[in-house]
Description:
Elements: E1 2-7, E2 22-26, H1 42-51, E3 56-58, E4 64-66, E5 69-75, E6 78-83, H2 97-109, H3 115-119, E7 124-129, E8 134-139, H4 146-149, H5 162-166, E9 181-183
Antiparallel strand pairs: 1-2, 1-9, 3-4, 5-6, 6-8, 7-8
Amino acid sequence: VALAMSAGCRAKEPGAGQAGGTVTLRLSGDWDTLDPQLYVNVNSSRLLVWVYDQLTYNEMNGDVKPALAKSWKAEPDSVTFTLRDDATCADGTRITPSLVQRSFQRMIDAKSPNLDRLFGPGPHTLSSDDAAGTFTWKVEKPFGGLLWGFGDFYGLAGVVCTSGISNPAALKERPAGSGRSRHTPRVPARR
């Protein structure tokens, strides 16, 4: 399976590459979906990290770094994120705290197979304040890995933009994220 992506380099990280160019990924098989909240196969995860940004990212040494969130306050049973004000979806839509809340609420409502692993057992309570620029995730019982879940290595905590929330069936083939790359249709595996 081959997938071509054009690099958009939306993240404003130190040392980030230049926009433009093409990356072609060859995978060992087909992916099942480009929906970060419902993915189940490893080939999907290899693509999700390129086309969806997360609130944070995790380094191998355990450090949590900013991504869509510029800062956060973590408690044993909650995390409140302050979002960057310059983040946009691939279609140009601004990423707001209420969009982040709708994205993660969709994950909860869809009963994502990764929900408890990333964010602990529920119930989960979400809130947002666009004026303050904050999004909060609360759990009923303390969960030590709560902050870590938002920067999952496999892209499972990627924020789905409005077009994907409105038309989740389209996420099977076309992502709706804010990641570094934009995807072009797949070339199916030859069997």
